[in-house]
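Q&A log
Question type: sequence-to-structure
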Amino acid sequence: MTTENLCFQLLKLPVVARNHVLKLFTPVELISLSLTSRHTKSICKTIRGVYQCKKGIETFDVRLNSNRDIRMSFKYFPKCEWVFHFEKEPNRKSLIELGLDRIPSFETLKQWFSRIWYMFRGKHVNDQKTGSMGKSLEGLKFFSWIPVEKTASYGRGAIDPSPFQRHTMTIYSSDNVILPIHKLSLYIADLFNIELTSLALNYTKFNADENRMIMSLFVLSQKNLKLFQLTGITPTDPSKNDVLIQILKNQNTVSTRLLFNPSPKFFFDFNICCQSFKVMDIDYSHWISFKQILEMKTELLYLSRTTLLENDFKVIVQKWRNGWTPYWKIAMIELNEVLNIDSCAEGEDFFQLENQHFVHKDVIRRNWPIELNRFEQPLGTTWGTIIRTGYHILRADGMIASIGVESDRVGWIHIQSPKHARITLSNHLRSYEIIWNQ
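Response status: OK
Response body:
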């Protein structure tokens, strides 16, 4: 029996059968096969259509914080996460101590890929066919193409805290990790017909030039980046605020979450940003002024740990009742004191809504000329159930705003859409964190 007969010649199968087999490959297996030649890459790219790939992707994230990796999850691989973790290549002495002194370079990998090609195709691959593949990922070193598998979870605050399987590959590079991560992310995006969904950045882990490079490669060059998450320790040197300002100015994502905790003197003018946001979520909002809240150009505004007081919240509510309409549709504001929601709804009369009428706008409008419709409603989420007490306020022009309080000091203002027949309310993890920390 010849060696050729021992090989499973995948690429000689009929197209339909071959594609069915390839759809069973894990992302790591598909990437490794695609690197054998331009031909195999084209095959791997076509096993799922562009529409299927874009609908099948759950996450395709780059993390440049305490972790420096690319993370992927797919709907057709439920409860699995695929991680490409990047490390700077240790020096020779450290490699020997770690037993990693034979980490294969891409040149060595090309020989492996040639063997893979031989197994699937039954003939040796021409080096010219792997040339473009080598150029696309040269400079990266792989210790193993077998991912380390372990059970993980995102913890209590995750939307889905249940455990899942995480498959991690470690990749070494002699260069700064920014360029290698970008290099591999481009390759994955092209192979799977997907776009980067989010970037998590700790700006204090990089110098000014590196931060500019990150923003250029992962934010400004992306058309549909959904989430930008920024963290960092408060700088003691005020001059480092310039780096932070440039990052904020140049990001153009749909949703922005700011987790850094700047000094109280820090200021940023959101009007100079590249674009307005759909979601602005700020974890430490003590530097956000009352005027900025009124003028913030975002649809959904979530402000935790502000310095605002009950009277400030009351002023916002009264401005709306007098005819003012903000740019944002929903605002969550954690005050610096306990919020008495009844004091924010001035009026002699109010109607106490029953739970079954809580979401019906027609019931609220029937109560006119009574403007205030009080409710006390349990809201259930994967984080638990919380009680929100508040009012649906009917304005003379027919607009409805829902104001409420939960966890004593978290105030909500929902400007209800006239297009919807029912009341809608949002929730945020911060309200549950306050309860958990009591």
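Response note: The chain has 15 helices and 17 strands.
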